[in-house]
Amino acid sequence: MSFLTVSKVHHTYFSSKTATEALQDINLTIEKGEFVSFIGPSGCGKTTLLSILAGLFPPTAGKVLIEEQDVFANADLSIGYMLQQDYLFPWRTIEENVTLGLKLLKVNKDESEKLASKLLADVGLPSIEKKYPRELSGGMRQRVALARTLAVDPKILLLDEPFSALDYQSKLKLEDLVHKLMKEYGKTAVLVTHDIGEAIAMSDRIFLFSAKPGRLYQTFEVPEEVRNLTPFEARANPMYSSLFQTIWKELESLEH
């Protein structure tokens, strides 16, 4: 049985006058420890599907299961969600931001602080526990957001364009860091991105969606030779360029 199963998922947004079909008959599976990306033209329902995977709302029809449990309104499933903005609380220290989820889980203070220190060191930010978000750069704040997400030991990490607001150098560094930590922690991750290169460099598989309504159009397997490299190194591999061209052409055909 696959770790995550999306089965016959449809989703329609209703208003007082209209019904807009956002997703149509989505079927896919993701294995434990796999890193996958969702790409596609604007309006293809990538973020809607990610929100359904997070259990934020149920699909209009169909099911999403993690380890055979329904994700919607399931308090027993810990799902990490990392967004474009870091949403750190400015009045709390970095340590307090990282341990927020642990506090809600009633983990004792000493244990929480110890874990926060370890995670901040893992994301390359040792000894900043007592600083405040305003004292950090955008890239550093996203590293803190990553540490906060990992603190609650989520079953799966959902990443909604988490690097898109960063400068290019910070983005590349954070891609490498996230890729490394997902492997080290053995986490399953889903990335929503508009960046084909980012999807190839970070993923094991890429799901390409078509728009209006969003449908799963094609799945691409990233060659093992590319998967075994860091995202930064992957960009220099000839197989990366070849897959980029293939996906680019498919995406162009969808947009026209």
Short description:
Residues 1-236 form the ABC transporter domain. It is built from ten helices and ten strands.
Features:
Rossmann fold; 6-stranded mixed beta sheet; 25% strand; globular
Strand order of the largest sheet: 6-7-8-3-9-10
Q: What is the molecular shape?
A: globular
Q: Structural class of the secondary elements?
A: alpha/beta
Do you know the CATH architecture of the largest domain?
3-Layer(aba) Sandwich
Q: What kind of sheet is the major sheet?
A: 6 strands, mixed
CATH class of the largest domain: Alpha Beta
Helix content bin: 25-40%
Low-confidence stretches: none
Note the beta-strand portion: 15-25%
CATH topology of the largest domain: Rossmann fold
Q: Average pLDDT, to the nearest integer?
A: 91
Q: How would you name the CATH homologous superfamily of the largest domain?
A: P-loop containing nucleotide triphosphate hydrolases
**What value does the Rg take, in angstroms?**
19 Å
Number of helices: 10
In oligomeric terms, what are we looking at?
single chain
* Total strand segments: 10
Distance between the termini: 38 Å
| Element string (H = helix, E = strand) | EEEHEEEHHHHEHEHEEHHH
Pfam families: ABC_tran
GO molecular function: ATP binding; ATP hydrolysis activity
Protein name: Spermidine/putrescine ABC transporter ATP-binding protein
Organism: Ureibacillus manganicus DSM 26584
Give an overview of the whole structure.
This protein has a 6-stranded mixed beta sheet, sandwiched between helices. It has 10 helices and 10 strands. The mean pLDDT is 91. It is globular, with a radius of gyration of 19 Å. 38% of the residues lie in helices and 25% in strands. It is of the alpha/beta class. Helix 4 packs across helix 5 (138-151), helix 5 runs parallel beside helix 6 and helix 7 crosses helix 10. It has 2 domains: 30-58 and 69-77 and 158-256, Rossmann fold; 84-154, no CATH class. The termini are far apart. GO terms for molecular function: ATP binding; ATP hydrolysis activity. InterPro entries: AAA+_ATPase (IPR003593), ABC_transporter-like_ATP-bd (IPR003439), ABC_transporter-like_CS (IPR017871), ABC_transporter_ATP-bind (IPR050166), P-loop_NTPase (IPR027417). Pfam families: ABC_tran. Residues 1-236 form the ABC transporter domain. This is Spermidine/putrescine ABC transporter ATP-binding protein.
